[in-house]
Specification:
single chain; six-stranded antiparallel sheet; 46 helices; small GTPase binding; membrane
Length: 1314
């Protein structure tokens, strides 16, 4: 069997795939780090300099001991594995992210351990574990090269010494310089800090003298594994290093141990444990079973210690909501521990975006990736966070691991039951002796060489074990049988006791028993301290993860009920995936407890949730994804035991119930080892090669490590692999063509994911440009999807209001979509950014634009907004045009004291522009200043791609087709200037009045109070705290003077910030002795949709909201006798049904989204309007002394008759007093008549209907009005009121309102005394 065959056949089942050595190549000598050079090229490009003109020379300002030099992969075994191809550049970069580092004998040379992972394009991962140590440089060429570099540096330093102060004070305006400086140096040698003033000029310590100093260089050993067995790999590598540095050679050549771990140590099967052998000690590892949480070996306790429980839960929430996460630490291993820890806690979800726990300096340009990411950045000792300027911070969660602190994005929702959740996690930590606040225990020490006594001890034990492996329980078979026989035999036991008493020793037996006892101790409580620590970590890990998993199992216990599965087969589902709704979000949210909603409404919009639901749907046709299988199993189990609270909406916190069992499972596996791997053994090697030399890692014999054994085990795995392959090929014929399926699957999973993982191995400028182009395309696609979703959801809602279909958006969901649009705009404005002030890239651009425009304004002494920017309203007769400009809206936001941050101002500005339907126009205006855009952005930035920018603005323009109130409804406490104009009917002469008019404007958030209007002035402005959407206006006057009558057409009110204009139609007289004698009217508002001919997108408009009843109703009843105005009996009955139905629908909406009930009661098509049509039907048209007759006149006569009858009853002493219904009707009519307000007869009718609906009396009053002599006198024979059947059915309809708590605005009910 060939090397590659044997290598690849068994590879999937092997513990480790590669063993690698990285370090300095003595043949090529010192080479400056190519990646550092590329980084300088990128920096020059970013700063607008010509990158090609960069000096090709060395950077002599820096001490050579501080510079980065190129490391190389010196050897890797085996050459390649088919299932996991070796990526040399990526491995080299991640093994030594800072390149080679040099030390002298004066510096600290403590070995370091770190891990990394490589994510392939298909999302699969391999893990790397690296032990870095220092080795003496023996090559005279390298020592002399270092000496020369030091002399050149010294000369440079001497010539530039007098420039030092000025150079230190000048700093570039560029936003990422500090970031560069924090990463372009390796850790400075410890001695250099003592140099004081010399160091500031770039001179490092005492430098290097080849005669006086010994030079050391870093070298790294690395294991690449398919699974993250961190502790096992760490122990193996540290034992390998110990073997190299100890005084005596290891028991076997190093090749034996490398060969053993590469080819003879298998992966433990699920649910089993494995023991294999390092150089000196056995190493244990275990793998969770099929139904358990997947393997996670990175110490979670360490992550909690570094950040504290509260910070970690906040970071966890940011990761769940797919924000940008940047981890910052000096220690690579800490970055890995926090990144891996936080992603393992996501179970059953998985992070779907860019994941680079260790970001090499050469990949810094990835920080302006306009996508969610989780990256780790190495900080330099002493770097101040405040100097670290990042391309985008609006949606960034910055985690300073070393200082145990975290900076959170603004306005992000809290995790449900956060306090109880933190409490439960704290209890788990305390049970293991850890503090929940974190940051107090001593940090984990670096890997250090053990003392020589320990070394000797280990040497002797390892040699002894090779002879007689008692420690592993591997007694010789015969000896073990003999011992069992003797121990189980009572006669022999008595003989043994007798022998002891008489002083005779049974030496062989005692030795056997002692050996077995040692094994027992070791297996029970007598584990080594390292093993105890590993067991404790494993138990803590699993218990913490169980608490997180239990939260999701509770929150998503019923998720399956909301999954929409509407495809007959996988192919049709994959083909239509983008157009389909896979999850009923609105129903799911309506089923959740109120406190959970802010978090859940954001979370169900994430890519990780979408992928989770996709996996669920695909599990109909293919094997369940492992995480999903475990999660569904848990939910099923919980249902079986009925752990769940009976009430779905309960937000009562439920603790995790399986902590003990999960820890026991791990302990049992580690107590009873299931598999022991083959021992390391001598290989068939050439003698004399790889001779042991203390302190130097030998050159291993490649031929013996190139391929594995052709033993039964590898043959078995090969045949298993062949069986699996055969099975897969059969399946391919049955289902889709596999390539096609894979393509669809990737497309389905990549929806919303704009970027593959950064490829570490190819970093040419062309590849970087290609990556940025992918970002641009991804942003455009995301913009298209978001605007389309916002439109479809919003239009769906309006269609429901018009009576079509089902609503599938809530106010909460709308708010989530708008917040997500704000985030997208911030990411677009951050892409390719050069200069930024503050945390928001968009607001920074707006401020620069404002400064330029205001400067131009001063120069030209003309207003910023030119004539074309005035927007006229179609029906805003009498309202002056509102000035429209980017600057004007910015000033509104800047005047809002409630908003304290730039990110908040940018979001408020976006919401305001969206509400005004000016977002696309404003951004177009902002980007029209091309000189400014060029100054602020790199060449590849999204905002400098003309075609994509145009498409982006067009997508935003489509949002003008619907009405948003996203500014008004969010900033409820701000002061807003309003303008009100009263428009009289012009054709009549007495448009002016001598009386003193007044006005009161009401909205969903409050009212303005009574505002006196200056006599004969028809316009006024007033400032009030945000009234929200306007609903009613009360208009009246005091009837003073000769011309006290007033005929008003309408009142217009405009919010001067948002430009929203409301029309309140009237068309009636206000005055005594005219119309219905009213001095005060309550007018219902209608929203005026702005029209603008020059913007095509604005022609499409939302249907108008309900408004004041048309003027037909407002003119007295006699005018209805004209032909063609009378509605039919069917129309009247339908309109009452419709009005009642609308009120019932209102109460079925969530409380925050109900809008105004006043409109449904008193607006056009409302209950009052419909009932008035009912009472007008068949009303006699005769005039009494030429006066108009109103429905209210009928009511008054009914009351008079009832009261009269009551009095007659009293006189005749007939025991028939008025019934409770008659009594209540009389009481209400009299209360309305007696109130001091003069609201006219129609106003009184309206008020009585509203009071009757509120107090559930309408159905009781109607039969009273349908009977009696007044009815026959004032109504014709065919009137609906005289039809008993119609009246009884109407009573039934009105009774349905009795189930709802109707509340009335104070503008109706004030001064009514009941």
């Amino acid at each position: 069997m060939s090397a590659t065959m044997s290598g690849s056949g068994s590879a999937p089942c092997r513990f480790a795939h590669y063993f690698i050595i990285c370090g300095i190549d003595n043949e090529t000598g010192l080479e400056p780090d190519a990646l550092a050079a590329l980084y300088q090229w990128l920096e020059a490009d970013r700063q607008g300099k010509d990158p090609e003109a960069l000096a090709a020379g060395e950077n002599f300002d820096q001490s050579p001991l501080k510079r980065t030099f190129k490391s190389k992969v010196l050897a890797h075994y085996p050459e390649n594995i088919e299932c996991s191809p070796f990526d040399q550049d990526a491995v080299n970069m991640l093994c030594m992210p800072k390149g080679l580092s040099f030390r002298t004998q004066r510096d600290s040379r403590t070995p370091q351990f770190h891990s990394f992972l490589i994510t392939r394009e298909d999302g699969s991962r391999t893990y790397g574990f690296v032990h870095t140590f220092y080795e003496e440089v023996t090559s005279p060429q390298i020592c002399s090269a270092m000496q020369t570099l030091h002399q050149m540096h010294q000369a440079e330093h001497n010539t530039s010494a007098h420039n030092c102060p000025s150079s230190s004070s000048s700093s570039s305006s560029s936003s990422m310089d500090s970031l560069a400086s924090s990463l372009d140096e390796v850790e400075s040698p410890s001695s250099s800090s003592s140099q004081g003033g010399r160091r500031s000029c770039g001179c490092s310590g005492e430098g290097y003298d080849s005669v006086r100093d010994t030079l050391y260089v870093s070298k790294a050993m690395c294991l690449i594994t398919p699974m993250p067995f961190m502790h096992a790999c760490k122990r193996f590598l540290s034992q390998m290093h110990l073997a190299v540095t100890s005084h005596q050679p290891p028991p076997l050549p190093l090749e034996s141990y490398v060969y053993n771990i590469l080819y003879e140590v298998p992966l433990p099967p699920p649910g089993r444990s494995l023991k294999f052998h390092g150089v000196y000690e056995p190493i244990l590892c275990q793998r969770p079973g099929v139904g358990e949480l997947p393997l996670a070996d990175f110490p979670l306790g360490e992550a909690f210690r570094l950040l504290g429980v509260e910070n970690l839960v906040q970071l966890f929430t940011c990761v769940l909501l797919e924000m940008q996460i940047l981890l910052y630490s000096q220690d690579y291993q800490r970055l890995m521990v926090v990144a891996e820890g936080i992603t393992t806690l996501l179970f059953p979800f998985q992070w779907q975006h860019v994941y680079v726990p260790i970001l090499p300096a050469s990949l810094l340009h990835f920080l302006d990736a306009p996508v969610p990411y989780l990256m780790g950045l190495q900080s330099k000792e002493g770097t101040d966070r405040s100097k670290l300027e990042l391309p985008q911070e609006a949606n960034l969660c910055f985690v300073d691991v070393d200082n145990h602190c975290i900076e959170l994005p603004e306005d992000f929702p809290q995790f449900p039951n956060r306090t109880e959740f933190i409490q439960e996690l704290s209890e788990v930590l305390l049970s293991f002796g850890l503090s929940p606040t974190g940051g107090n225990a001593s940090p984990e020490p670096a890997v250090s060489t053990q003392s020589s006594t320990l070394e000797k001890e280990l040497k002797s034990t390892s040699l002894r074990e090779l002879v007689d492996d008692k420690r592993n329980g591997n007694l010789g078979g015969e000896a073990l049988d003999m011992l069992e026989l003797l121990q189980g035999n009572p006669t022999l036991e008595r003989l043994q006791a007798l022998a002891k008493r008489t002083g005779v020793k049974v030496a062989r037996l005692e030795a056997l028993a002692a050996g077995q006892k040692a094994v027992g101790d070791e297996g029970a409580g007598g584990r080594s301290p390292v093993e105890e620590e590993e067991l404790r970590n494993a138990k803590l890990n699993v218990q913490l993860r169980e608490v997180f998993a239990a939260r999701f199992a509770t929150m998503f216990a019923d998720y399956e009920s909301f999954v929409i599965q509407n495809s007959p087969d996988l192919e049709s589902w994959l083909t239509n995936r983008e157009q389909m709704h896979n999850f009923d979000k609105a129903s799911f949210l309506s089923d959740q407890p109120e406190p959970y909603l802010p978090f859940l409404s954001h979370f169900i919009e994430t890519q990780m949730f979408a992928t989770f639901i996709d996996n669920k749907i695909m599990s109909q046709w293919e094997e369940k994804e492992p995480l999903l299988r475990v999660f569904d199993g848990r939910i099923e189990k919980a249902r079986l035991y009925n752990v769940r609270a009976p009430s779905l909406r309960s937000s009562v916190y439920q603790k995790c119930t399986v902590l003990k069992e999960s820890a026991q499972a791990i302990e049992q596996r580690l107590r009873k080892i299931d598999h022991t791997a083959i021992h390391p053994h001598l290989l068939d090697m050439k003698i004399g090669q790889g001779k042991y030399q203390q302190g130097f890692f030998p050159k291993l014999q490649a031929d013996v490590l190139a391929s594995g054994p052709t033993n039964k085990w590898s043959n078995r795995t090969c045949s298993t692999q062949r069986r699996v392959d055969r099975h897969r090929q059969q399946n391919e014929h049955l289902v889709l063509d596999n390539d096609l399926k894979e393509k669809y699957m990737q497309e389905a999973r990549n929806l919303g994911k704009n970027l593959r993982q950064p490829k570490l191995s190819d970093l040419s400028p062309a590849v970087i440009a290609q990556t940025n182009w992918k970002f641009v395309e991804g942003l455009l696609k995301e913009c298209k999807m978001k605007t389309k979703r916002m439109l479809v959801e919003k239009m769906g809602r309006e269609a429901v209001e018009l009576g079509h279909g089902e609503a599938n958006i809530t106010g909460l969901e709308e708010n989530t979509l708008i917040a997500s649009l704000c985030d997208l705009l911030e990411r677009i404005w951050s892409h390719g950014l050069l200069v930024k002030q503050g945390k928001s890239a968009l607001w920074s651009h707006l401020l620069q634009y404002q400064a330029r425009e205001e400067k131009n304004e001063l120069l030209s002494e003309s207003p910023v907004s030119n004539g074309q920017e005035r927007r006229k309203l179609e029906s805003s007769v009498g309202l002056p045009a509102l000035r429209v400009s980017v600057i004007q809206d910015m000033r509104h936001i800047q005047n809002m004291g409630e908003i304290k941050t730039d990110v908040g101002r940018a979001r408020a500005w976006i919401r305001l522009s969206l509400e005004k339907k000016l977002l696309s126009q404003h951004l177009k205006q902002l980007l029209s200043n091309q000189a400014l855009t060029k100054k602020l952005y790199k060449r590849y930035a999204f905002l400098r791609c003309e075609e994509e920018k145009e498409q982006f603005l067009f997508h935003l323009l489509s949002l003008n087709a619907v009405d948003y109130f996203c500014f008004t409804s969010v900033f409820t406490t701000i002061m807003i200037p309003y303008r009100a104009v009263i428009i009289p009917i012009k054709k009549l002469s007495n448009t002016m009045t001598t009386s003193n008019p007044w006005l009161c404007v009401s909205g969903v958030l409050g009212d303005s109070g009574t505002l006196q209007i200056t006599k004969n002035v028809l316009e006024m402005t007033f400032d009030r705290q945000n009234l929200g959407k306007l609903t009613t206006v009360q208009l009246g006057h005091d009837n003073s003077g000769l011309l006290a009558k007033w005929l008003v057409d309408c009142v217009m009110v405009r919010n001067e910030i948002t430009g929203h204009t409301y029309k309140f139609p009237c068309g009636r007289w206000l005055g005594k002795g005219v119309d219905d004698g009213s001095l005060e009217r309550v007018l219902i508002g209608e929203f005026v949709v702005p029209c603008n001919d020059d913007e095509g997108g604005r022609g499409a408009k939302t249907p108008p909201l309900q408004r004041s009843p048309s003027q037909i109703r407002r003119i007295s009843i006699t005018s209805l006798t004209g032909r063609g105005n009378k509605p039919t009996t069917v129309q009247i009955q339908e309109s009452i049904g419709e009005a009642v139905n609308n009120i019932i629908k209102h109460f079925h909406k969530p409380e925050k989204e109900r809008g105004s009930l006043t409109v449904l009661l008193c607006g056009e098509g409302g209950l009052v309007w419909a009932l008035e049509q009912f009472f007008q039907h068949g009303f006699r048209s005769a005039r009494i002394f030429q006066k108009n007759v109103f429905v209210w006149d009928f009511y008054e006569r009914v009351v008079a008759l009832m009261e009269n009858a009551d009095q007659i009853g009293d006189l005749q002493e007939i025991p028939e007093p008025l019934g409770p219904n008659c009594e209540s009707f009389c009481r209400y009519v009299n209360a309305v008549n007696n109130m001091p307000r003069n609201i006219g007869k129609d106003g009184k009718f309206q008020l009585l209907v509203c009071l009757g609906a509120r107090d559930r009396l309408l159905p009781q009053w109607l039969p009273l009005l349908a009977e009696g002599p007044v009815n026959t006198r004032m109504y014709e024979e065919n009137a609906l009121l005289r039809d008993k059947l119609t009246v009884s059915s109407l009573v039934g309809v009105l009774e349905t309102l009795n189930d709802f708590p109707i509340t009335l605005e104070t503008s109706f009910t004030k001064s009514v005394e009941l």
